[in-house]
Amino acid sequence: MWTVLPSPIGDLRIVERDGKISAIEFSPFRQPADGRPLGARTDDHPVLAEAVRQLRAYFDGDLTDFDLPLAPRGTDFQQRVWDQLSKIAYGDTASYGEIAGRLGLTNAASRAVGTANGRNPIPIVIPCHRVIGADGTLTGYAGGIERKQTLLELEQDALF
Questions:
Q1: Catalytic site includes residue 107
Q2: Which residue has the higher pLDDT, 32 or 16?
Q3: Does 158 or 119 have the greater pLDDT score?
């Protein structure tokens, strides 16, 4: 099941499977990569409704930590990277190299961290937008650099 949330960064499709959020997708929406049907649009499913509520609060600057049941699908390495992303505090950033270090890897693993970061199926809630280049620049983002910048600015504005 899924629903759509209009947001300051465009429409977001929120996907639920087995009572957990499995994806948040940026528009324009595509068919699922795994070929599985999404099911019906269901705006009143409890998990989807709660995700919408929390995302609205986030975009309003009233929520800094999400509390949703999540089920991102990925490799063990991707799961480890996404777990580290979830530990980057609201309004903070970390570099790809810092994430590699937190995983006990050398800076040489930065590219692998970047690849895993780019495959995060639940952006915003798993805050991949908070990962930046070692020199502090904004680097790639699956939703586009403009969205990444908007999300980071939203968090900074809410803090001050």
A1: no
A2: 16
A3: 119
Number of folded domains that form the chain: 2
The catalytic residue among 128, 132, 151, 154 is: 128
Sign of CA dihedral 41, 46, 47, 50: positive
Q: 90-139, pLDDT tens digit by residue?
A: 999 999 999 999 999 988 899 999 999 999 999 999 999 999 988 888 88
| 102/158: higher pLDDT | 102
CATH code of the domain containing 135 = 1.10.10.10
Residue 119 phi/psi, 5-degree rounding, is -100, 10
Give residue 136's domain range. Answer: 76-159
CB 55 within 8 A of CB 105: no
